[in-house]
Predict the structure.
Amino acid sequence: MSNRARSNRKDGRKRTETAGKPARPRYAAPAVDQALDIIEFLSRNTPAYGINELSRTLNISTNTVFRILRRLTERGYTEQDPSGGYRMGTQFFALGMRLYTRFELRLRARPHLEKLAADTHETCQIHVPDKDRVLVLDCLIPQAEFFLQTTPGSRFHYHPNAFGKAILAFLSETEIKDILPEKLASLAPKTITSRRQLLSHLKQVRETGIAYDMEEYSVGFFCIGSPVFDVTGKVVAGIGITGVLRPPVRRQFPQWEERVLSCAEHISRDIGYSGNAFKEFATNRAKLSPKRSRSK
């Protein structure tokens, strides 16, 4: 198991409960709790509720209820009906659909990742963009005596990560600069720490559809990744394999590249992608020498 997997599991510890009661929050934020109380109440009750009704029911002052609902309404999270009552707004639906799309992607990708894990006997993952990091959406372990495992929900840096690179390569330079600082964090001796150097590195990923992490995140480990595109042609994930870097493994990289690309294409087709990117990847890879193709 890689160090990065262990460290993320530690970060993801849940709060404990004592004597059947939820543990007291470490950091109190009464205004946030009150806003969430209102949101959760409205989500469970379909009729519109007035400020006074919400105040009495939730034991929150009318002034506070008014101010919270005013801001929620201004941002589209609640709306008023003709009688002046408040109900859930369309912005929550929009957020819900984004989450649905993410979970739907996980379900669609799983059988393809299972096949990739069975074919390569290596751990297979799918990562999705999550602000300045990528989020592990799923992790499939192989039927093998030794394998690496990461915890779904863990977050990793883009730049030393093959799956993150597979996503970055298909974003605009402006989008990349919005995500990454000019000076990138160094996680291992081989980590690319210059955004300018990374942008140059991504050119070949964009041509071939294959991204590598060769001990850039953790010493002794490798990743091979490819992009996943949605029905609009937008890159929505990076998928691929992760394993321990050892001499016998290197000989299998060309074969594994093909399998990773095939997996990425099958997932993309399964969520509606109909473009020619994967055909272009095959054409570009055929023009490259095996040495150059394996160098990243």
Remarks:
- Confidence is low (pLDDT under 50) at residues 1-22.
- The domain at 27-88 is CATH 1.10.10.10 (Arc Repressor Mutant, subunit A).
- Residues 90-120 form the longest helix (31 residues).
- The CA atoms of residues 46 and 87 lie 7 Å apart.
